[in-house]
């Protein structure tokens, strides 16, 4: 028997032993029982066939579940490099105040990123703040810059929008707001380190004063 003939036979065999066919046969057999017990008489072939069809059609079909491809998590370091390339490419199109805010944001991120997980685990950085830092790299800045760069340069600089600001002014305001937010996060994150430094200085000052007083005796 060749491969062309085997395939239909295989499908027929699969159907005959499938739960759908078994369910249909069970209902058809129930129809025959009704016939033999006198419950049904005229039109029994249609009734039996209908019961078989109900069993076959009502039984749920197998659902093929497609496996989702595992998502590739991009590291924050890689995102920072991608953002730097984007800023370098866009620098000629950006207003000077926007570029200044971007460089300030990059400097703050350079301080936060190497210790991001450490600060989050220690509690110095909240989950919300860590999310803001990562989303700044993953979404906020790339989407903001990409949207602005899609606009014609003259339109972005000169055409007022609904709130009377130009697109360039909107970009500057958004970047300044993001810059201030990240600076506040950095201030809160490193507050513990600053306090430790201050306490260390106070301790050292007390030790030196005590030593000086002892030597003067």
Task: Explain what the structure shows.
By secondary structure, the protein is mainly α. It folds into two domains: 12-58; 76-208. Helix content is 76%, strand content 0%. The chain contains ten helices and no strands. The chain has helices at 3-16, 19-36, 44-58, 76-90, 96-112, 116-122, 127-149, 153-158, 167-189, 191-216. Helix 4 (76-90) runs parallel beside helix 7. The longest helix has 26 residues, at 191-216. The chain is elongated. It starts with a helix and ends with a helix. The relative contact order is 0.08. Mean pLDDT is 77; it is low at 1-7 and 64-72.
Task: Provide the residue-averaged pLDDT.
Answer: 77
Shape category: elongated
Q: Give me the number of helical elements.
A: 10
- Tally of structural domains: 2
Summarize the structure in short.
The chain is mainly α.
Outline the secondary-structure elements.
Blueprint: H1 3-16, H2 19-36, H3 44-58, H4 76-90, H5 96-112, H6 116-122, H7 127-149, H8 153-158, H9 167-189, H10 191-216
Helix pairs in contact: 2-3, 4-7, 5-9, 7-9
Q: Could you name the key traits of this structure?
A:
single chain; 217 residues; mainly alpha; 10 helices; 0% strand; elongated; disordered N terminus
